């Protein structure tokens, strides 16, 4: 069977890509599988805190990482995984295109899936004004009025990205203050096109069946609980991609993130996790921490496969 590897990395975001780079340096025969190359990193409109780049988009950073992986000759499959079975000394994976692969070890770097508001109109107007990606869809809202829900770095940078094109941006957050880094909060507060609406929830997306026309709020804004907008961008975090892990008996925390030790190992000796899907960084989910965790996971796989002391050959 030619589809047998020492390692399979599931997920092609910063954690998975970095793990692949390190696995290549360790000369581990491996396969990288990802349904979205670049992961959620590609949705980041402005990145100012990744070493080596004063300012770069998520798409550009993802492309640079992907180019590096490809130059190393890594086998990449742009597909999703449907099922994982644990055999006596390996794992068997079935992908969305009905291919079957086997590996002695796994690195799970599946990240998170976009959290939804789960309000009326959200699904109905998806693609008609509702979006989860400002980087992808900002161009459609030139000189229009949009709302952004959320208070994180992702929400604020999305608002700033949209403000460069839109007529007006409402940044709506259910608490006060925002959760974003102070530098991003300051930029948003100084931007004349951005109005921050604190301690407010969006209850419903309203429209005329063709497009979004307004948002229903849980409290009045300037005397009205309906806020006129042409679009809504939802940036309220994500849910960990761990559904495939549950049948394997991988230990998860109360929020379904994979429990990992400092070396990114799990309760299953041959299974490791890295990036946003792992619980090691808590709410501090950053591209740079995901990349670091990917490197750690690859090193741990190397030590596991050779059966030696995990601290040996740990070159810096």
UniProtKB/TrEMBL annotation:
InterPro entries: FAD/NAD-bd_sf, FAD/NAD-binding_dom, Ferredoxin-NADP_redctase_2. Residues 6-294 form the FAD/NAD(P)-binding domain. GO terms for molecular function: oxidoreductase activity. Keywords: Flavoprotein, Oxidoreductase. It comes from the Bacteria. The lineage of its organism: Bacteria, Candidatus Woeseibacteriota. This is FAD/NAD(P)-binding domain-containing protein.
């Amino acid at each position: 069977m030619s589809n047998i590897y020492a390692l399979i990395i599931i997920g092609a975001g910063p954690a998975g890509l970095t793990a692949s780079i390190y696995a290549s340096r360790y000369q581990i025969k491996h396969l990288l599988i990802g349904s979205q190359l670049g992961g959620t990193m590609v949705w980041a409109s402005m990145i100012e805190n990744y070493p080596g780049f004063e300012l770069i988009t998520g798409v550009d950073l993802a492309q640079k990482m992907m180019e590096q992986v490809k130059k190393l000759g890594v086998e990449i499959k742009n597909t999703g995984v449907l099922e994982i079975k644990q055999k006596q000394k390996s794992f068997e994976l079935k992908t969305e295109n009905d291919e079957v692969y086997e590996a002695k070890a796994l690195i799970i770097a599946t990240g998170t899936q976009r959290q939804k508001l789960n309000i009326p109109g959200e699904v109905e107007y998806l693609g008609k004004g509702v979006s989860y990606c400002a980087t992808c869809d900002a161009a459609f809202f030139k000189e229009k009025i949009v709302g952004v829900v959320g208070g994180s770095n992702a929400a604020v940078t999305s608002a700033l990205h949209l403000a460069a094109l839109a007529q007006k941006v409402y940044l709506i957050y259910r608490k006060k203050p925002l959760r974003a880094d102070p530098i991003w909060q300051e930029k948003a507060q100084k931007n004349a096109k951005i109005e921050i609406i604190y301690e407010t929830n969006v209850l419903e997306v309203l429209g005329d069946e063709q497009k979004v026309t307004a948002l229903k709020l849980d409290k009045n804004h300037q005397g009205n609980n309906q806020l006129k907008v042409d679009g809504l961008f939802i940036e309220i975090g994500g849910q960990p991609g761990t559904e495939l892990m549950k049948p394997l008996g991988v230990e998860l925390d109360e929020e379904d993130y994979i429990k990992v030790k400092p070396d990114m190992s799990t309760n299953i000796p041959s299974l490791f996790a890295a990036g946003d899907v792992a619980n090691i960084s808590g709410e501090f989910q950053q591209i740079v921490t995901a990349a670091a965790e990917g490197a750690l996971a690859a090193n741990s796989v190397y030590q596991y496969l050779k059966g030696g002391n995990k601290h040996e050959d740990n070159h810096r």
